[in-house]
Fold:
Amino acid sequence: MKVFKKNTVPKVPRTAPLFTGPVSMQSFVGPDLSKRFMITEVHFENSVRNKFHKHTIEQVLIVTEGKGIVATEKEEITVTPGDIVFIPAEEIHWHGAAPGSAFSHLYVMSPDSKTTQTEA
Structure:
């Protein structure tokens, strides 16, 4: 068993073509601890989001802070702390901070999942 204290895990700044601006991440469970899933918290600054993308395996988002948006090609849903979002494999989507708010969520997914960015 391993217990994680959220405030002891460093937030690592990250920039990547997938994001519209800077984010930071805290990885709690990764391939070094589990072959079956990863748990990482992503912290988005005001209005920052990731671009449309899809995963080869399902993804779960657990909203922890702020006000965010989770969108598919057909709809946008506002989410707040306590909301849990299930994203099926291969569903094209994005998620990030709503205008005027920072936003954080935990994601749970398989380390075997591959992400494909579908938006330039």
